[in-house]
Amino acid sequence: MAYPRKVRIFEVGARDGLQNEKQMVPADIKVELIERLVEAGVTAIETGSFVSPKWVPQMADTADVMARVTRYDGVTYAVLTPNARGYEGAVASGADEIEIFSAASEIFNQKNINCSIAESLERFIPVTEAAKRDGIPYRASVSCALGSPFEEEIAPAAVADVAKKLYDMGAYEISLADTIGVGTPIRTQRVIEAVAKVIPLEVIGVHFHDTYGQALANYHAALEMGISKLDSSVAGLGGCPYAPGATGNVATEDVVYMLDGMGIESGINLTRLVKTAWFISDYLGRAPVSSVARALKEKLN
Ligand code: HMG
Ligand code: MG
Q: For residue 1, what pLDDT band results from cuts at 50, 70 and 90?
């Protein structure tokens, strides 16, 4: 057991969260959300994605959001890019870094980005070559790392295989995503073990959705192995429109509360974060799914 002393939280609420909302959230609300998160101490944030607006209309205004957001030094403003066209949009918007994404499930990949896993890796070659040329760091995500909505079982070896290929393409982090939130702690550790046999443990990140209420336990299982790169989403927003049944990512408030209790530094101020969770939830017209946000509501004023 070697818990990290410090972790880096990648806040994905403005992208993974809002991509899944039925109602269109206007750019000014997205901008305020991002700025409030940064004021709460978030230093790495996904502001949106440059994907086809036909596929994910909720993210069509990412360029506008990027143009309007007040940028702070020391904060990484990242966007998701599915192809070379998305990369061009990312660069034009001034993104600090990008995320490329594939999956351990063939069917999910097909439904999400309309190509096979092998084709997606091919498609990312020009993106990564351009990013290297432009000095833009990139991380990579492996969806369905702990299960798929379409297949019975995802073998840890299949996750390791895609993770290794993305790492060999120069990604500085490989984020293992439990897209539909089905993982459990021992399963999480088995998959991380399999991936850590082929790439360094230090570059492995985790991105867990909380559909079955297991995400915090799974983060704890990952922390126990020394993983220090965690994705989470304010107010527990999120899901993937192409993964049936996927609900939100684990709430950043719940993760920060757990980390605070364990003496692990995240740099995020819980009170400000909870206020931000209520800001976006009030806008969306519902309470945050986060137990911590609900428990702390009365203590905010
Ligand atoms: P396609 O239909 O195969 O591609 O989609 P295409 O090249 O034929 O393009 C279709 C149309 O989109 C064309 O427009 C293109 O110009 C346009 P048309 O000629 O019909 O008017 N287009 C674009 N527009 C803007 N930006 C672009 C872009 N590319 C093409 N970058 C494609 C292939 C990859 C584009 C599509 O499948 C797509 O955009 N998919 C994205 C789906 C998505 O965003 N899913 C959610 C994010 S992933 C996720 O949430 C998982 C994650 O959180 C980890 C986890 O939890 O698992 C990361
Ligand atoms: Mg996700």
A: low
Measured from CB, residues less than 6 Å from any atom of ligand 1 are 16, 19, 49-56, 80, 82-83, 85-86, 89, 101, 112-114, 141, 143, 177, 179, 207, 209, 240, 242
In angstroms, what CA-CA distances link 301 with 134, 138, 142?
46, 40, 40
Residue identifier of the C-alpha nearest atom 36 of ligand 1:
113
- What is the rounded CA–CA span in Å between residue 174 and residue 176? 6
Q: How many CA atoms lie within 13 A of 155 on its CB side?
A: 5
Global confidence as pTM:
0.97
Q: Is the pLDDT of residue 228 over 90?
A: yes
pLDDT band at 112 (very low <50, low <70, confident <90, very high): very high
pLDDT tens digits, 26-36: 999 999 999 99
Ligand 1: centre distance to CA 104 (Å): 18
Percent of the chain exceeding pLDDT 70 equals: 99
Burial 79-116 (b: 16+ CB within 10 A, else e): bbbbbeebbebbbebebbbbbbbbbbbbebbbbbbebe
Tell which one of 52, 87, 141 to mutate to probe ligand 1, the residue whose CB is within 8 A of the most ligand atoms: 52
- CATH topology for 8-300 is TIM Barrel (3.20.20)
